[in-house]
Amino acid sequence: MFAHHSILATAILFLSIIFSVDALPTESSALKLLEKRYKKTANLSKYQVPLSNGTASLPAPTAGLTLKAITLGRGTQNYTCAAGSTDAPKAIGAVADLLDATTLLPYLPPSAGLAVVNILTKYVVSFDVSILAKSTIPVLGKHIFDEFGVPTFDLGDKGLLKAKLLAKIAAPKGAVKGPKNKGEGAVDWLALTDAPGSVGLKAVYRVETAGGKAPASCGGGEERVIEVQYAAQYWFYG
Fold this sequence. Notes:
Blueprint: H1 4-19, H2 27-37, E1 67-81, E2 90-100, H3 110-124, H4 129-133, E3 139-145, E4 151-154, E5 160-169, E6 189-194, E7 203-211, E8 224-237
Antiparallel strand pairs: 1-2, 1-8, 2-3, 3-4, 4-5, 5-6, 6-7, 7-8
Helix pairs in contact: 1-3
C-alpha cells in the first residue's frame, strides 16, 4: 500500500514530467518513462468513480456500463449578471479542455493511481489553460454547452455525449476553492446521463471539483459575464 507521502511524491513526479522534463535529475530517464507510459494502457475496469462527499452520494453507474475514460477537466464555469442586479449570477454553462488522465495510470496500482489523479486535480486548477495546452498530457476532448444549452462532451473517437442531469451533491467540505485555494468554492459533483444526439457514451460523472462557484451576488454594476476558473474529474461510461 502506498503511503500518503509516496502518493504526493508520485504526483509531483508526474507534474515534473508533464510540465518540465528538464527539471528532473536525469532527462533521458524521464523521457524513457514518458515514452513507455504512453505505450501502455491502464486497466480501467479496476477503477471506481468516487460517489460520496462524506455525507451524501451520487447514484452508482448503471449496471452494464463500462468505464471508457477518466479525464481532468480544466476551464471556466460561466455566469451572467443583468445590469444593476444584486441577485445571484445565473449559470449559462461551462467551457473546458478534457485532459486524458488515463495516460498517468498504467504503472500504478488503482488505489495509488486514483490518489495521484485526485491530487493532480487540486494542482491543475492553479495552472493557466494555455500552459496545460502545452503539456504532455493529451487533450482527449472538449466540454461545452451547445446552442440549446445542453451540456456536451466531445471525446473524438471515444464518442459524443449530450447530457442531462441525473443527480447532484455538494462538493466535500475542504474542497479546493479555486486557483491557489482562493475563490467562492467548488461546484457540485454531478451524475449526468445521455440525451438525444449522444454517440457511444451513456453517462458522465463530474467529481473531485475545485473552484468554479460564482459569487453569492452580482453586486449591481453593468451587465456582464463572469468566468470562474475550475477543474474537475470527468468519468465517462458507455
